Amino acid sequence: MKQQARPAAYLTITAFTRLGSISILSILLLLVIIIATGTGAMHISPAQVVAILLERAGIRLPVAYPEHMVAVLWMIRLPRVILAVLIGAGLGISGAALQGLFRNPLADPALIGVSAGASLTAVVLIVLQPWLHFAGGNMWQSYLQNIITFAGAMITVWTVFRMSVYGNRAVISIMLLCGIAINALCGAFTGLMTFIADNEQLRNITFWTLGSLGGASWQTVLAVLPFVGLPVLLLPGMAPALNVFALGEQEAMHSGVKVNKLKTQLIIYATMAVAAGVAVAGIISFIGLVVPHITRQFTGPDHRVLIPCSALAGALLLTVADLICRTIIAPAELPVGIITAITGTPFFIWLILKDKRVIAV
Predict the structure, then answer these.
(1) Which band of pLDDT confidence, cut at 50, 70 and 90, is reported for residue 353?
(2) Domains of the chain (ranges plus CATH)?
(3) What is the pTM of this model?
């Protein structure tokens, strides 16, 4: 009787922990979205934010607000906040998935060349843009650069993945080494393009590599949504397989996990989420690396809890970081990548020092 009761109790506690963690993070994210949407040069109270949002759903609240406040919220504030939520969720969930795939808490999406490939492609486009006007004015500015940057990241990751295949399966250690080599190569060519760029192009390159959500619009939100939404929906379903994979590839294969399929799907989904964010917002560092660490401190290593919570925590962290960067020196604005690096680096160092005995083992 005791042997039967123990698994049932364990499953109940696990389900409660998962539901509780997701619920708390969801509530915090909703509160941060309301606060971030109302904060700026024109202050919008939380009650007004809720009233304006609910009005579009046909629900009217007894809260007064001027019409121009509605325009500011819908056309400027809300797209930026939603874009921060999407990109943060994509970076967080990709970091958690890749750390599970590599079975290494220090892994992040940059290891497989996503950021390096996207950076190289974007820098090439910035430098060559004077000769590419035939691509079409505003359409070029709005869409083509994002599409080509995304394609560059995908091609880089595909190259790393194909180089790591041995005996019809991807070898993780080779993938890491190939990722380091491709990152160095992309960095060299990025430096070359930076060297031949003029002053205006150098400024654009610098601001792009620092990361920014300043160009957010509903067009960019809709462009990113499918590429982030699909991984956020599908990666949690792979959590049980990742839990088994943590025991080792051979053990996972003996347990019925299709290891090669798991690796391929994880890399594709993680690349989709990260590359889409990099294409529209530039390089935003440390979210994919630090967020799974922070989440793991509260949820434990179970990927069924860790993966969805990392998505919520990533969205929460990037939304807060973007709120800080556009208000701390207002009316000027800091690149959001600076804020994430300044806050993420000390915290990550603290985690390493705290867990260095475990990492050394």
Answers:
(1) confident
(2) 2-360 (1.10.3470.10)
(3) 0.86
